[in-house]
Amino acid sequence: MNPDLKAALAAQLLIMADDELILGHRDSEWCGHAPILEEDIAFANIALDEIGHAVTWYGLLADLKGEDRENYPNRLVYHRDLSDFRCVQMVEHPKGDWAFSMLRQYLFDSYEKVRLDWLVNSSYTPVAEAAAKMRPEEVYHLRHTRAWVRRLGLGTEESNRRMQAALDQLWPYALQLFAALPDDALLVDAGYFPHSDALCESWQAVVIAYLQDVHLDVPHTSNPIAITRAEHSVDLNLLLNNLQEVARSYPDAGW
User: Taking the complete model, does pTM exceed 0.85, yes or no?
Assistant: First the structure.
């Protein structure tokens, strides 16, 4: 693998891992606070899955860089500064109300589903194998959040209002998932990853029809929020302060 392609692949793996890590952390904040006990258990398990997927992508990044797979992910999670994270701001937002978290998870789950459907055939074997393991879990996630989106969208006047408010806020942030990176063409040409435009088209074909079916109005904008993955909110800064506090207090401890 030539150096430019390797660097592009490393950047993409880091992006996927950071998205999953931070979303999983936000989901975990519902543990003990979900509206019903069964959902408390279900959403906590979804949070664990997302964090587990992050660990998988961090592990592939460690392998690519020749780093220790056991310790490298921990260094990335607990000892990077805010500016070194590459997640989208959609996953950084606090959990909000139940409608906000469910809609965010639905938008992300739908994105993951269309991406994993492609990645199982990636010409980079480690990515294809990881995607094949993740896809059954993501099918469950999407089935779960689709049901909640329908339940809340078609529920009461208030539940529909809250879902619409969440959609209006989240839509331009969700489009950031498909913003092209400078070296994306290298990954597409190598058959490692799909083109971001094709991925976005597949995603929108699924989510727009479903959201309209549950009486939600999709915002007309087709432009992602004008920020890069290197720009982050104060919300992520607060989250990292909490997430990294113990590890940074005891840097020589084993994990």
Answer: yes
Residue position matching structure tokens 């879902």 = 163
Between CA 195 and CA 13 the distance in angstroms is 15
Two structure tokens written together for 130 = 């990881």
Burial of residue 105, with CB atoms counted within 10 A of its CB: 0-12 exposed, 13-18 middle, 19 or more buried: buried
Round to whole Å and give the CA distance between 47 and 31: 9
Please choose, from the candidates 216, 205, 201, the residue with its C-alpha nearest in 3D space to the C-alpha of residue 149. 216
Alpha helices in 66-124 (DSSP H): 72-78, 98-119
Of the two residues 106 and 229, the one the predictor is more confident about is: 106
Closest CA to 229 of 188, 196, 181: 181
Task: Give the separation between CA 218 and CA 171, rounded to whole angstroms.
Answer: 8
Neighbours of 209 (CB within 10 A): 10
User: Tell me: the pLDDT tens digits for 145-169?
Assistant: 999 999 999 999 999 999 999 999 9
**Side chain identity, residue 92:** E
- Residue 150 DSSP class: H
| N-to-C CA span, the chain | 32
Q: Which of 40, 50, 173, 42 is nearest to 103 (CA)?
A: 173
What three-state secondary structure class fits 242?
A: helix
The CA distance from 246 to 66, in Å, is: 27
**3-class state of residue 184 by DSSP:** helix
